[in-house]
From TrEMBL:
It comes from Leucobacter weissii. GO terms for biological process: iron-sulfur cluster assembly. Belongs to the iron-sulfur cluster assembly SufBD family. Residues 1-49 are annotated as: Disordered. This is Fe-S cluster assembly protein SufD. Residues 149-370 form the SUF system FeS cluster assembly SufBD core domain. PANTHER family: PROTEIN ABCI7, CHLOROPLASTIC (PTHR43575:SF1).
Length: 403
């Protein structure tokens, strides 16, 4: 290319390739929308992302006005009150933000996560090293009404086994990043439970990297909070890695629950399964599920499937469900996706009522069974029973408010 042509193309309003001319509003070449999931810009600096307007692809379903303090305000990055239950082979410590163990699983792709990353002072690191299975509960309760930032790192050493339950309760205005790092041969289940108070607002981005022949089960259970948005990204970047992303949620009147799930197959012979199931009841109940699966050219032999199911229990609700699948290689074992949103099945109700079960009890049984598929994967009887009771309490309170 001659210097004159190069200068003409670089100049505002100059002629581009094939005679295309830049618009007068400038930066025409950089206004092309991101075409694939992997092309999204990434940065740990909040100033690298423009202010959120709600028109962006990653924010267009979210109530951004309610999240303004977390997106554009000043966040308190000091240590959050947290309790970690003791277990053999498990350590918990606070590490500075410049520690080399931070940033291994992924970095932000949007302003909310970048704001939290820019603000936190120390990260809470939980390390599992035992090859015998252990259970660890990491509990936060009542963080207050001031906007806060947090950062958590969960690491499973090679061949470690464990279950980590992240319990979120009480009041909160929280934006956070959670990193999950699995060594080769590790097997880890991470459960994030959102049972916040009614006015809580929570933005969470979870990033995971899965080692060779390692297996991660990531489970999200969202029940409480005014606005809750939990976005897990699982990167299968080592051969033989397995990732399962499961979710259960129940939105009642005026509640917004959102989950954007990303499975990134980078290495050969990796496997993933995504199953999210939600129920909605009450005026203004809103759920959003977006599932992205990317099978890169290097991920030969991939086996992947994602699905989302929503059960609508009353009028005045809205469930958005968007599965996306990108395949860059033809050499895969299988890939697919499915999505369905439907009303309560009257035939199920008729069957149960014909056997003497009152209507409200029948509805509880159907919803409980619908969500149990996800909750039963937790593998901790006490937590599973408590969450089943919480689902039934949601049903009872929503039914009472509707009368």
């Amino acid at each position: 290319m001659s210097q004159a042509v190069a200068e003409n193309q670089a100049a505002p309003g100059g002629t581009d390739q094939h005679g295309l001319r830049a618009h007068s509003d400038g930066d025409w070449a950089n206004r092309v929308p991101v075409q694939t999931r992997s092309e999204r810009p990434k940065s740990t600096e909040v100033d690298d992302f423009p202010a959120v307007t709600g028109r962006e692809a990653v924010w267009k379903f979210s109530p951004v006005a309610k999240l303004d303090a977390l997106l554009h305000g000043e966040l308190d990055g000091s240590r959050t009150p947290v309790e970690t239950s003791p277990a053999d082979g498990v350590t918990a410590e606070w590490i500075p933000r410049d520690d080399a163990r931070i940033g291994r699983a992924g970095i932000p792709e949007e302003r909310g996560a970048a704001a939290a990353w820019s603000a936190f002072g120390e990260a809470h690191l939980v390390t599992l090293a035992a090859e015998e299975p252990v259970t660890v509960a990491v509990t936060r309760d009542g963080l207050g009404d001031s906007p806060r930032a947090a950062h958590t790192v969960i690491e499973a050493k090679p061949h470690a086994r464990g279950l980590v339950i992240l319990e979120n309760r009480g009041s909160a205005q929280l934006s956070e990043n959670v990193e999950i790092v699995l060594g080769d041969g590790a097997k880890l289940t991470v459960v994030s439970v959102q049972q916040w108070d009614d006015g809580a607002r929570h933005l969470a981005s979870h990033y995971a990297t899965v080692g060779r022949d390692a297996s991660l089960t990531h489970i999200t259970v969202s029940l409480g909070g005014e606005v809750v948005r939990v976005n897990p990204s699982i990167h299968l970047d080592h051969e033989g890695g397995n990732g399962e992303a499961l979710g259960a949620y129940f939105a009642d009147a005026g509640q917004h629950l959102e989950h954007q799930v990303y499975l990134d197959h980078q290495a050969p012979h990796t496997r993933s399964r995504v199953t999210y199931k939600g129920a909605l009841q009450g005026e203004g109940a809103r759920t959003v599920w977006i599932g992205d699966v990317l099978i890169r050219q290097t991920a030969t032999g991939t086996d992947s499937y994602e699905q989302n199911r929503n059960l609508v229990l009353s009028e005045g609700t809205r469930a958005d469900s968007i599965p996306n699948l990108e395949i860059e290689t033809g050499d895969i074992a299988g890939a697919g996706h499915a999505s369905a949103t439907g009303r309560f099945d009257d035939e199920h109700l008729f069957y149960l009522r014909s056997r003497g079960i009152p209507e409200e009890e029948a509805r509880r049984l159907v919803v409980r069974g619908f969500l149990l598929e996800v909750i039963a994967h937790i593998g901790h009887a006490e937590t599973e029973a408590r969450l089943q009771e919480a689902v039934e309490a949601e049903l009872a309170s929503s039914s009472a408010s509707a009368r």
